[in-house]
Structure formats: C-alpha cells, structure tokens
Amino acid sequence: MSTPSNFIKIIDLKLATRMIEDLQSQGFSLTIPTPQYTLFLAKKSGITCTLYSSGKLMVQGKGMGEFIEFYLEPLLENFSFSYPNLKAATKKLQTTTADEVSEIPHIGIDESGKGDFFGPLCIAGVYADSAGIARLQALGVKDSKTINDANILKLAKSIRATCDHHIVKINPFKYNELYAQFKNLNTMLAWGHATVIEQLVAQTKCRNVTVDQFANERVVLTALKRKGLDLNLLQRHRAEEDVVVAAASILARETFLLGLEQLGKEYSLRLPKGASKATIEAGRDFVKKHGAQALCNVGKMHFKTTNSIL
Q1: d(CA 24, CA 40)
Q2: 175 and 209 share one domain
Q3: If pLDDT is split at 50, 70 and 90, which confidence band does 182 have?
Q4: How far apart are CA 2 and CA 7, in angstroms?
Q5: Do 74 and 101 share a domain, yes or no?
Q6: Is 85 inside any structural domain?
Q7: Residue 106, Cα to own-chain centre: how many angstroms?
Q8: Domain harbouring 234, CATH code
C-alpha cells in the first residue's frame, strides 16, 4: 500500500498557539500573517504544515512521516496515519487490581534517570512467575530508592540471573533528539514503557503488567494501543511495593548508575546525580573543558538546569 502524499485532519483551534511555539522551536519558518483563510503556514526542509481558519490541518512533504508520528499524533492523540489498521488490530486493554496481580506471574516496569540532568533515561522490565516472585522476595528486593548504590549493583546481578528482563537505555544525545520530537517527557516515557512491555510480552507470553504510574493513565494506554497489545494492565502509584516492579526499578537504577559512570569516564569528569547546585557546578566545568555544544552529549537539555549552566 502506498504512503499517503499528505495528512489532513480537523483539529481544535485552541491548539494553534501551542503548535506555533512548538514548530518554531523545531526550526520551522512560519508565515504570519498568512494567505486568506489560514492561521499559519510553516515550512521546514521536506515538510509543509498549514492550519486553516476552519480547523483543517494539512501536512505535506517527503519528511512528514516522522513529524506526524513523533510530534503531531501524540499531540492530537490520534494515530491513524502511522497505524491505519490500529482499530481492527487492537483488543481492549483491561485494567486490573494490585491484589489480583501481586502473587501471579506478571511483568513489572519502572524507570530511572528521569529527574537527573546528567546521564541516561533507563526503563526496565522484569518478568517473574510465582517461583520467581518468591526468589525475589528471598533476595530482599525492594524499591531501589531505599537501597544504596553498592547494594543496587549486587542485587541487579542476582535479578538478572533470576528473571527474564529487558531494558531500554536512552543516552543523553538520543534523549535530546527524542525530546525534540515528542515535546513531552511523559509521552516519551510512555513510548519507552510500551517498547519494554512489547519485548517482554513477546519473550514470556505473559499478559499481566504492572506499571508505576507517572502520568494520566491514558498516556501509557495510548502508547500500548499503538502497538496493538492485548494486556491486563495495572497502573498504580508506589508500584514499587510490588516486588516485580521493585526488581525492575533496581535494574533501571543499575543501568543509570553505570551509564552515568561511563559518561564521566568518557569526559574525564565526575557527573553527579540529580539536578542540584553540584550538578550546575559540574556542568560549568564540563562546558569549560569541552564546550557548550557538547553538553547535549551528557545532559538533558530541556531541564531548567541548562540555563543555570550556560
């Protein structure tokens, strides 16, 4: 089937101001005032985006596919262009309760690095059956935030040997590229969660999934529906109380710690965790040694910390 030559959608005109700001930040050249009956005309290499006063949005050009998939569809919460057969392929995602999941075979998902300026964003998933859950409990697995770094590394080794797992590690340079496309951290996190879940479901055939809720339930549900996954999904706050999610939090933290250490070695500089005064000082030292243009290789550039460093 051939790819459509343009994308046309009727949208809420309340989105116009946000779109203008987003498109300008993405390097589009905007024509304002515009031809009659248009609110804006935006152009960038390979893409033309026009919003009419009627609410009709039209996108054209050879580069429109990635722009639509990573920016426009998440904004509109409609994925019919990238996934035209989504409605037919997607079964209903059922929600479930913590008591139903905690002792049965299930997948747990958690992330690390979201609040740290330096280092990667890491999303980990762990699968455990009933025997695996008992082994995790015997290991003393609990929320990674309650465990020091040395014990994180020890426990992670045991978890890897005990359970099926999958990890998505997004290093800062790629993180910054993806953030420029998604324009929203929660949307990017949901994509990462869905990617890990998809892989573990394929590995284990398990449909029971528990996720530490980091945003409105709809954000993760939308990302999962795009992949056509048929799941029993539980999103909950403090999901690390579930030992399988806690195991995932430990693997995510281990991957973050090792990634942060590796970046520090690469640039011969200690890169602290978090986004504190020490982070700002380290960032300024980094810029002195390697230049401001290299900061995107180690830091998450949309953080307010960036302004303090530069």
Answers
A1: 12
A2: yes
A3: confident
A4: 13
A5: no
A6: no
A7: 21
A8: 3.30.420.10
- Whether residues 166 and 108 share a domain: the answer is yes
**pLDDT per residue over 103-119, tens digit each?**
789 999 999 998 899 99
Is 299 within a domain? no
Specify which residues 164 forms β-bridges with: 127
Nearest alpha carbon to residue 120 among 53, 47, 68, 171: 171
Helices 243-266, 149-162: inter-axial angle, 10-degree rounding: 120
Domain encompassing residue 167: 93-259
What is the per-residue pLDDT across 238-259, written as a single tens digit (0 to 9) for each? 777 889 999 999 999 999 999 9
Count how many domains the chain has.
Answer: 2
Residue 132 CA to residue 128 CA, distance in Å, equals 5
Ranking 87-91, 100-104, 106-110, 233-237 by mean pLDDT, the lowest is 87-91
CA distance 261 to 271: 8
pLDDT at residue 92, as a whole number: 42
Closest to 254 measured CA to CA, from 123, 129, 127, 107: 123
Residue with tokens 């997607």: 90
CA gap 220, 198 in Å, rounded: 12
Exposed/middle/buried for residue 2 (C-beta within 10 Å: 0-12, 13-18, 19+) = exposed
Q: Would 305 be classed as within a structural domain? A: no
